[in-house]
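A reminder from the course coordinator: this example appears on the midterm review sheet, so study it carefully.

Given structure:
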């Protein structure tokens, strides 16, 4: 199971795509109608889709998996009674699968048989998405739900987050203990720490200062730099997230504490809590499909 892409709806997809290609460092993939698809250097046909809508919302966050994984998912989602429907992707890469609405309304799409593309060179391109994090009213319950129904695993719990993995990467998603449901942030995997630092420089060239970072997190130990995108959400340059073994023992909040005045391993950056909070509330989830039975 791999996190592949996020599909966002917003009023000006062309402007969002221009920022992501000209400043953030992505490559254009395709434009279909009003929808702009952007890729990284890796084999996924796109990582981010921007489609036109008067309102801002997340259409879906997409994972790709094997036919066997998909069959198992269908069975468990059906048994859980979560809203879901069969879904043939009309985005680049195609593929068949399901759309699923989690208990708080987060919409995930799981696709099997979607195609990949040849990797491209570019040391400032993101390689792939490394995680998409959601705000939750009850993050603990969301963690249990995705373990029980989707077969994901909670890697660590902190005072603020429940980190969740779907392969050997420490987390591909997480639920923030926010008290409301929305998109928290989208993290792009960069080639190495230098690529993260050059990214920060590139953003500074365009008068965008980090909202938090650079730094290195506790759980997952990844390097980060968070920015508030001009089109709304929080986006992150990230690299070097830990790989964990199958039997990784999930840490509890008391295992992840910081000394006074510290919220990461390096302690070199301030965090714009208020600005981040506003950006984290902008993109909610909208189900644009009617639940339907899943065929076998
Ligand atoms: Fe992150």
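Designed residues:
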């Amino acid at each position: 199971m791999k996190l592949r892409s996020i599909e966002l709806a917003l009023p000006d997809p062309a402007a969002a795509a221009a920022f992501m290609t000209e400043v953030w460092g992505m490559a254009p993939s395709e434009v279909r109608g009003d929808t702009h698809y952007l890729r990284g250097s890796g084999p996924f046909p796109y990582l981010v889709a921007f489609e036109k809508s008067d309102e801002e919302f997340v259409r879906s966050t997409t994972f790709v998996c094997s036919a066997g994984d998909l069959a198992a998912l269908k069975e468990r989602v059906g048994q859980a009674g979560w809203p879901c429907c069969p879904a043939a992707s009309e985005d680049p890469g195609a593929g068949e699968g399901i759309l699923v609405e989690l208990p708080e309304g987060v919409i995930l799409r799981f696709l099997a048989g979607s195609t990949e593309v040849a990797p491209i060179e570019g040391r400032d391109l993101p390689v792939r998405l490394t995680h998409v994090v959601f705000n939750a009213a009850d993050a603990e319950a969301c963690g249990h739900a995705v373990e029980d129904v989707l077969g994901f695993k909670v890697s660590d719990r902190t005072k603020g987050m429940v980190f969740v993995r779907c392969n050997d990467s420490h987390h591909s998603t997480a639920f923030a203990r926010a008290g409301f449901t929305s998109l928290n942030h989208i993290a792009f995997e960069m080639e190495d720490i230098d690529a993260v630092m050059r990214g920060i420089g590139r953003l500074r060239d365009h008068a965008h200062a980090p909202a938090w970072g650079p730094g290195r997190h506790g759980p997952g130990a990844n390097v980060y730099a968070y920015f508030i995108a001009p089109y709304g959400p929080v986006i992150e340059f990230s690299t070097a997230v830990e790989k964990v073994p199958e039997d990784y023992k999930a840490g509890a909040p008391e295992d992840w504490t910081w000394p006074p005045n510290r919220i990461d391993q390096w302690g070199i950056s301030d965090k714009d809590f208020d600005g981040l909070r506003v950006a984290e509330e902008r993109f909610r989830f909208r189900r644009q499909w009617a639940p339907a039975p899943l065929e076998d």
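The chain has two domains: 2-120, 128-280. The first strand starts at residue 2 and ends at 10.
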